[in-house]
Every structure is written in structure tokens, then in C-alpha cells.
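Bench log. Compound arrived from synthesis this morning; before running ITC I wanted a structural hypothesis for how zinc ion sits in the protein. Inputs:
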Amino acid sequence: MAQAQKITPRAKDFSEWYNDVIMQAELADYSPVRGCMVIRPHGYRVWELMQGALDAMFKATGHQNAYFPLFIPQSFLAKEAEHVEGFAKEVALVTHTRLRATGREGAAAIEVDPESKLEEPLVVRPTSETIIYAMFAKWIQSYRDLPLLINQWCNIVRWEFRTRLFLRTTEFLWQEGHTAHATEAEAEAEARQMLGVYRKFQEDWMAMPVITGRKTESEKFAGALRTYALEALMQDNKSLQAGTSHNLGQNFAKAFNLQYQTTAGGLEYAWNTSWGVSTRMIGGLVMTHSDDNGLVCPPRLAPVQVAIVPIWKSEEERGRVSGVGGQVKAELAQAGIRVELDLRENMKPGAKYFEWEAKGVPLRLEIGPRDVAAGQVMTARRTGGKAPAPLDWLARSAALALDEIQASLFKAAKDRREAHSIRGVTKPQFIEFMKQPGGFAYGGFCGSPDCEAEIKQATAATVRVLPDPEFRSPETPKLCMWCGKPSVAEAVWAQAY
Ligand SMILES: [Zn+2]
């Protein structure tokens, strides 16, 4: 174990705190490649648990996994005008295929072999719409081939200059769903359905409440007809876009000649959707729940849900408490709980508590000789609270405690979000609110991209979403909170990651 270091308090420096939590929990580390991170085993396990839950939900809604190439011909990106504009500034390009020895010393010992220049450069995928719809065009001939519902788990490269662990790195992991449908209504229903799947996952598994809604024209995905998003409020009152789902219309179908024969015998362009969530969600999880002692992980995504720490002074005591610890571990594992028994020597119980806390383990069981004699263990929740629990029915009481922790984390995050939201905001209130920043501001919006740009310039806040009905204020705003022109939709503004 690395030497335990103090975590910078959130109130002092949120950004430092965030990095400290990730490093102490051993979720990720900086790599020798600038802008790229290493996801360490504890962090990768969180990702695997996320993947497992989401993958089951994708399959339950009829999607199949497939895999497409990492490299995309440069010309593919150029086929959809908006799309190329959106990604041109951040692509990595492969132009050559080999190096050659120079006979010189050090770094100069090898150089690019000019003979190996590719006729057409390859883009390292920043997203896969182009390559996937090129393949769909090959596979789809008639209405009988529709809908086609595909998902891919993969890595993505988008060149970034200002990077932050999990939130913004040049390479990251994600899934991208890509579908083709016969009608616009079906594509729209699919885009909305997947937004709902993400919401369910983020609320039920990550215990992270989200606001769903539509993006404005200036915030939508490059090449989409409509973009829907999930936005979550972090503890520094900034918003994190936690996932997006796009109705792509026929934009890509037209660019890649993705046509199908209709029941009537005519030819029609298909309607596409794409949707994705990434390892960025781990950053969201950290910033939603964690505290000044380190990571707080919702039990359903915790790599270790219960850590058992036996406490002993003598060899004889050691035998007794670790024996009981072993039984408890077996019983909990049998009940499907992810459990560790911490029998490390030469480490004081206090240091073990500290480490499991930093790693976000939701529940700790302490077993001392007196507990064994009394037929009980001491339980300590990561979110606070210590209580003895009888050894009988321990698996059941641990499972109940984990459920309670899961529910309480969601409730606390939701209460926090609501306490940091203002509705029916006026321009002076808005300016004041965004100085700190204060959270989500709901208000009328005229729909003008110029007005949106002016607000961003003045306050660094952007429209996160035009919220879905259940998130809208009881009273529909009549005027744009900024320019005073008639409002076309209520908007949720925030400063964002
Ligand atoms: Zn306006």
C-alpha cells in the first residue's frame, strides 16, 4: 500500500480534493503519455460493474454487441458536414505504418519511414457513426432488416489539451449504441428509450440523480437532429453531462447511402440513433458522493461492499477472531456480497479502517475478542454510524444495511441538488447565482443562440437541457430570463464540466 496521505478538503480546493480521492482510492493514475490515464484495478472493477449492469439493460431492450475497427478512413469523416466540423479539431491521425533504424544514438535511433506513408490517412475513432453506418448500408436492404440494434464497448480518442482524470482524457472507454429504423417515430422512441435506460442506471446503481431533457441547437451532437442528455449536479455545484442519446435523423443515412426497400417497394433512407456513456461516469460518482475521507461508493457499484477487520493483541486472540472472520466472510460471499477479510499483519486496525474508507467500502465489520465472546460484530457505515450486530443473520443484516446506504446516498444527492436549484430566475439573480457557482438555475429562454452565447460569455453558464416535463417548474416562464423576449422553453442553466 502507498503511504497514506492527507486528502485536500473539498472546501479548500475541490479540484485538488477530486484528484486526491482518486489517487488515494487507487482508481486511476497519471501515465507517461500526456493526457492519458491508467485505470487501476479498483477503478476498473467499478467500470466492470457499470458495464455489467448496463450491458444487461441493453440486451433486455433488444440490442446486440458487435465490434468495429479502431481506424476510420479520413474521407468517411468528411461525408457528414456537421460531423467533420465537430470532431476535426481533436482527432489523432495515422499517416505512416512503420519506423526505420537510422544507426544514430538515443531517440534518433529510429525515425518515420517516409516510404510507408498511407495513401489515405486513418483517423483513430473519436466516435463510430461513420464506420458503423457504412457497414449498416451493406447489411440493410429491406424493411425486413429493420430495426438493427447494435452496441459496441470500446475505447475512444479525442485529443485534449486540458485533461482531468476520468472527466476529460485523450483516450477513454465507453459504449456507443447505433441503431437503424424504418421511421422517424421509431428512431425518436429509441433515442428516448435509451435516455430512460441511462437514467435508471444512473439513479438506481450510481445513486446519482439526473435531470433529463433536450440539448439546444448549439449544444447538440455534431450531425444529430436532436440530442437528449442527462445532467447531474456535482458537489461543487457544477453540472456533469453524464450521457447523451441522439436522434440522428437521416443525416448519416444520406451520407452513407443507407437505404432500404419499403413494404410498398420504394427506396427510403433509414433513421438512425446513437447513444453513449463513458468512464466519465466514474468521475461523476466520485464527485456526487465522496467526502474529505475519500471515496464514497454506492454499494451496487462497490468493488468491495464489506471489509472485515479482525482485531487482536495476542496470537491466541488472533486465531479466534480470524476464525470467526473467515466464517463471516464465507457466509456473506454465499449471500452474493463482495467481501474482503483483512488479515494483514503489521498494520494497526486504525490504518486498515483508514484505507478501506479511502477506497469507499460501504460497510466495515470489526471483530474483536470481546465481540466474539458476545456473539456479535461492530458494524461501521462509510456514510457514518456504528452499531453492534449479532453474528446470527449477519448476511441478512449486512444486505439490508447495503440497501439502506444505497437509498440514503441517492436521497442525500437529490436533496442536495434541490437545495442548490433556483426556479423562475431573473437576470440579476442569475448573475449572482452563477458567481459561486450556485447550481441549477431554471428560467425562461428565448431560444436564440446569440442570447445563449452572451450568457455563456457573461457567466460561464450554458443551457444544460431544456428539461423533460417532470423536471419543469409548475409555472411556465413567459419571458427569457436574460433578454426579456418571449420564452420558447424553460431551460436549466449551470456551469459545467
Ligand atoms: Zn434571450
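What the model suggests: Residues 131 and 474 are 44 Å apart (CA to CA). The domain at 304-400 is CATH 3.40.50.800 (Rossmann fold).
ITC booked for Thursday regardless.
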